[in-house]
Amino acid sequence: MIAPRKRNTPRARKDGGGRREYSSPPCYLHEFEAHPAASCVPNVGIKRIYDPPHPADGFRVLVDRLWPRGIKKDNAAFDVWIRELAPSTELRKWFHRDPARWDEFRKRYRHELLARAPDVEALRQRAREQRLTLIYAARDPKVNNAAVLEEIIRTG
Predict the structure, then answer these.
(1) How far is C-alpha 7 from the chain's CA centre?
(2) Model confidence, pTM
């Protein structure tokens, strides 16, 4: 019985040189292909509207229901304003930046966003295609509706 030949095993060259060749050249094409998991991960972040815009922000979406104080509409740097994704007026007034209500606010806001699932999915798809930055006006960078929306877009 003949043993099967192993792939990529060195063999001597016919010219008698000291170098060895492999039966097939190594293939590096997989290094140039896009990783399938990388295209599925949404590229999303949040930023205050009062911070200067940067080209790395990508597509900028204002996600507040009210117009930010002190910002002129001519100078506002965002691509689209989606008021419908902001918390309802009742929820916003109930929360009123109270850190003690943060967990309950997140729960209630997530529940409100279930009714806007197609809009959230559209943002998630946009974040898979290009950088997405959610713009907000709140003072606290961790306790605001954009932080909750970012989490939802990332986790699905």
Answers:
(1) 42
(2) 0.73
